[in-house]
Design goal:
The complex is a heterodimer of chains A (about 650) and B (about 325). With about 650 residues, chain A is an all-alpha fold. Helices cover about 70% and strands about 0% of the residues of chain A. Chain A contains 20 helices and two strands. Chain A has a two-stranded antiparallel sheet with strand order 1-2. In chain A, helix 5 packs parallel to helix 14 and helix 6 packs antiparallel against helix 7. Chain A is globular, with a radius of gyration of 25 Å. The N and C termini of chain A lie far apart (about 70 Å). In chain B, helix 2 runs antiparallel to helix 3. The radius of gyration of chain B is 26 Å and the shape is elongated. The interface between A and B is large, with 98 and 97 residues.
């Protein structure tokens, strides 16, 4: 009996690596600490009422933000472990398999569990406020999306200490990712972690398309909508078409692994090249899904901090839509080397280069928004200014990679690694950080400290170039990605060492940001409604910071693009808009079902991972039970009476 | 004050130009930019063309960017013009839709030209009979077979200089990618398929090769050396190798198939059908069109037929370097 428990535990838990034992201990300690704090301060009820069951888009946004920052930390630690291993030739810090697991989880986490939720955080924090809505179109579904994402992320993360991490690369090409190449459970954790969070992503995409199309304040024609909301719309349309491909692809891989199907195994008549095509038919649009909202963020920030109307609004909208369509026609550039014909490679080379055109137009428009403006450099603008040169160079190396015959020399080398980190960090991460700095005072009611923010900005930025520029040259000198070690004879030591220094600088930059947040919670400057010196241009700056639960006491009547800017301008001229009548506000009620249902999804995923049929059945019954419960809940909304609204507004210093 | 600023700007720009010049010269020593064969040479030229075309846009834009953030700072004494509502100019926007289009058309021209050019083996040596090497990516070693010479090697190859080399690529396990940077770009080696790729070395020397697509645990150890030598030296090496007693038959192959790394090794003879059987065993039987070998149109043993350089499959070579023979 005892022996069989021992055997089970030895299989179930990841053993034998001091780093992982360290992680086990720290996970246990942190969990105990959280339970203790919640109990000691009697916060369990608060946690349940205010957070676990909330359907408020602002709170869901904040939860996405916290989760994504934790994932940024985890993915960042992965990166530093890798850079430590590669700092010098023949380092024996990580074993081969451990290194392989780490680069796999680094990629998976950074794209799917860091970039995606940070993007959803910004969607939730900003879009309803920006279009004058009181919540998203489907608040319940929104909460469900979040909990599905979180459960999916947890599923992937527990693989670190239970069962073993996936180690076949972040897109896990078969046949390596099939049972023959990856017999362990890591690959199943990967499949189910992504599948479960993927349902959430797709639902969020649908939710925000409907929100933007149906819930804009009266008068806000689409062409008067702020550019960030436009970017969310374009990203969500892309999600709508791309994510089902991912779901199907991984479902087929699951069938191969679980039921012995042969979709991608050549020896059973399948075709692994099909997987590579399918995964990139999702994977390439995915890159644009995460970068389009960043473009939207920059458009808002550049206008606000240049005190000037955005240049070429129509061009900007058109460019984003062109990008989101073109992104579906470039996937083959991820495998020019797989041997398609010259016709095919030429076509995809040209479409890939063509994407640079609308992207370049956007850069010009940002520059000419600043031109003849008055530029100030608070944190959001600083990160935007870090983005422009970084993204220009990253975009240029992307065009170089699109040159098919040259790509045969860049493919899978560190040149490629340097390129996509430059667009994903320089474009996406810098963009989201800029957005977080920009809208932080709106959501939290206080500003983040500028001084510590500057330290963070400069260490991040300089660290970025020190880390990734050497990698272009390593790639040109024949260093391929995913090697866990290399010899002195290769001559790669100096560049790798430099790169590692840069990686640690970025790590220090992240620590500065943690410090900055901790410091600002206590000493941060209180934010007014129009938090950035009264230069806000869009509706979210017209309401208090943080906004009341219903966002807008009265839904604004929109007349112009940048309506809030025009309201202020008119006011200065002595023209006031007529006051509107307060009415009772219709709001959604909290619900525990999203949290419960997502937990059952977790059981399903965990059961499939370990082939525990009983757990799959329990989980599936729970999922259907939750759907059933929701279908027959009728008490799902309530009204806030006018008196209560007046009282809340009075406390916020606004009279009606 | 104004003058000293100008002087500083000048110094900064001069230093930047010097730094770029140093990097450009130094990078000429990096493998990809130091080609030793016609394929890598074409690719290198294309890389520099793309660098220049991108720089034509990037450098002025960075200049404009620097100028704008210096000139339009929000300072009370800033005398630069301020037009808060200026937000549209059809003329300007037409210019910056136009410039990138022109650059993409130019770069697209060079790209397509060379994509088709690399389809065929090097024209200058079209009269030379090519050497065929069958390459198998195994866990975690490279198996090279010389069907015409009846020898095989592990983790190294020797080739004659100025001779087109036809690589036929497959894998017995995960997908890999076969890359010798100084001779030319990579191509995937996939189980159940026989991919083609032409390379050639213009001079003698030793070149680094590696797997470029992740294959699992000891992927990092899948390096090999390519030694390019004179035809005489190559012939000597072949006859010396043929004296080796080790034979690459099924038993030897099964031993190699055990997961793990391997040292360099030479086999003096081999089972001529082994490569075909590797392709078939790993899925080729389900996709007969993937390997010409299997259809019999590509006799493995008879070197003179397959290596004339003008047979239909060579003419049909489509991607820059290779293709899985699946679209016929």
């Amino acid at each position: 009996m005892l022996d069989s428990i021992k055997d089970f535990a030895a299989d179930f838990f990841v053993t034998g690596d001091p780093l992982i034992y360290g992680a086990d201990v720290s996970i246990a300690l942190v969990s105990i600490a959280i339970v203790f704090v919640l109990t000691y301060f009697k916060k369990w009820k608060w946690l349940w009422r205010e957070w676990l069951t909330t359907v408020d888009h602002k709170k869901i946004g904040i939860m996405y933000l916290i989760a994504s920052l934790l994932m940024l930390f985890r993915g960042g630690v992965d990166a530093l472990l890798m850079r430590t291993q590669l700092a010098l030739p023949n380092v024996e810090f990580l074993q081969a398999d451990h290194y392989n697991a780490i680069f796999t989880t680094h990629g998976t986490i950074m794209i799917l569990f860091m970039a995606m939720p940070m993007m959803f955080a910004l969607f939730n924090m900003v879009v309803p406020l920006q279009i004058g809505a009181r919540d998203v179109a489907f608040p319940f579904l929104n909460a469900l999306s979040f909990w599905l994402f979180l459960m999916g992320a947890m599923l992937l993360n527990v693989s670190f200490v239970i069962g073993g991490s996936p180690d076949a690369g972040w897109l896990s090409y078969p046949p390596l990712s099939e049972l023959s190449g990856s017999p362990g459970v890591g690959q199943d954790f990967y499949i189910w972690g992504i599948q479960i969070s993927g349902i959430g992503s797709l639902a969020t995409g649908i939710n925000f398309i409907v929100t933007i199309l149906k819930m804009r304040a009266p008068g806000m024609k689409l062409m008067k909508m702020p550019l960030f909301s436009w970017s969310v719309l374009s990203a969500c349309i892309t999600i709508l078409f791309a994510f089902p491909i991912l779901t199907i692809t991984l479902a087929l891989l699951f069938l191969d692994r679980y039921f012995g199907a042969h979709f991608f195994t050549l020896d059973g008549g399948g075709m692994s090249m099909m997987y590579v095509n399918l995964i990139w038919m999702w994977g390439h649009p995915e890159v644009y899904i995460v970068v389009l909202p960043a473009f939207g963020i920059f458009s808002e920030i550049v206008a606000t901090f240049s005190k000037k109307t955005i240049f070429g609004y129509k061009s900007m909208v058109f460019a984003m839509m062109v990008i989101s369509v073109l992104s579906f026609f470039t996937w083959v550039h991820h495998f020019f080397t797989m041997g398609s014909s010259a016709d095919v490679n030429s076509f995809f080379a040209i479409t890939t280069m063509a994407i640079a055109i609308p992207t370049g137009v956007k850069v010009f428009n940002w520059l000419f928004t600043m031109f003849r403006g008055r530029i100030s450099f608070q944190s959001p603008m600083l990160w935007t200014m870090g983005f422009i040169p970084c993204f220009l160079v990253g975009g240029a190396t992307g065009v170089m990679l699109a040159v098919a015959p040259a790509d045969f020399q860049y493919h899978n080398s560190y040149f490629l690694i340097a390129h996509f980190h430059q667009v994903l960090i320089g474009g996406v991460v810098f963009g989201y950080l800029a957005g977080i700095y920009y809208w932080w005072p709106k959501l939290f009611g206080f500003k983040l400290d500028e001084k510590r923010g500057r330290w963070a900005f400069w260490t991040w930025n300089i660290g970025f170039y020190v880390c990734f520029f050497p990698q272009y040259f390593l790639g040109l000198d024949g260093m391929t990605r995913r090697v866990y070690t290399y010899g002195w004879d290769r001559g790669w030591a100096a560049l790798n060492f430099t790169s590692t220094i840069g990686a640690f600088m970025m790590g220090i930059g992240f620590l500065f940001q943690v410090w900055q947040i901790a410091y600002s919670v206590r000493k941060g400057e209180r934010a007014t409604g129009d938090a950035w010196g009264g230069n806000g241009r869009t509706l979210e700056w017209s309401i208090p910071s943080p906004p009341p639960v219903y966002n807008f006491a009265v839904v604004p009547q929109v007349k112009h693009a940048d309506d809030w800017f025009h309201v202020k301008e008119d006011k200065a001229k002595g023209i006031e808009r007529p006051k509107q009548q307060l009415e009772p506000i219709h709001m959604p009620k909290n619900s525990a079902i999203p949290f419960v249902m997502a937990s059952f999804f977790f059981l399903v995923g965990f059961g499939f991972t370990f082939h525990w049929t009983w757990m799959i059945i329990v989980g599936a019954l729970g999922v259907f039970g939750s759907l059933f419960a929701r279908s027959f809940s009728y008490d799902v909304d309530y009204y806030i009476p006018v008196d209560e609204v007046i009282e809340t507004e009075r406390k916020l210093g606004r009279s009606y | 004050m104004k003058n000293s600023h100008k002087w500083l700007w000048g110094l900064g720009i001069a230093l930047a130009i010097a730094a770029v010049a140093i990097v450009v010269v130094w990078s000429g020593s990096l493998m990809v930019l130091d080609p030793k064969g016609p394929v890598a040479e074409i690719q290198k030229n294309l890389i520099w063309i793309s660098v220049i075309l991108c720089a034509v846009i990037i450098v002025p834009v960075l200049g404009i960017f620097a100028f704008i953030i210096v000139r339009y700072r929000d300072k009370p004494d800033n005398k630069a013009p301020y037009e808060p509502n200026w937000s549209h100019s059809t003329k300007l926007e037409a210019i910056w839709w136009g410039i990138p289009i022109v650059i993409v058309v130019l770069l697209g021209y060079f790209t397509v030209r060379d994509t088709y050019k690399l389809v065929k083996p090097p024209a200058e040596t079209a009269h030379v009979a090519p050497v065929t090497i069958q390459v198998t990516s195994m866990d975690w070693k490279w198996l090279f077979q010389y069907p015409d010479q009846d020898i095989a090697t592990i983790n190294y190859i020797n080739i004659p200089e100025n001779t087109p080399i036809q690589f036929v690529l497959t894998s017995s396990a995960a997908m890999n990618s076969f890359w010798i940077p100084q001779l030319g770009g990579q191509t995937y080696a996939m189980p159940g398929m026989a991919m083609r790729m032409w390379l050639q070395a213009d001079e003698t020397g030793e070149y680094f090769g590696s797997g470029a697509n992740f294959t699992g645990t000891d992927f990092a150890k899948m390096n090999f050396t390519v030694k390019s030598m004179s035809q005489d030296d190559f012939n000597d090496w072949v006859s010396k190798s043929q004296q080796e007693t080790a034979k690459l038959d099924n038993a030897a192959y099964n031993k190699l198939s055990v997961k793990g790394t391997a040292d360099i090794q030479t086999f003096g003879s081999m089972d001529p059908n082994l490569f075909n059987s590797i392709v078939i065993k790993n899925g080729g039987h389900h996709h007969p069109a993937n390997g010409l070998d299997i259809r019999g149109a590509y006799p493995v043993k008879d070197g003179s037929n397959e290596s004339s350089g003008s047979e239909p499959d060579a003419a049909n070579q489509t991607s820059g370097l290779s293709q899985p023979e699946m679209n016929h």
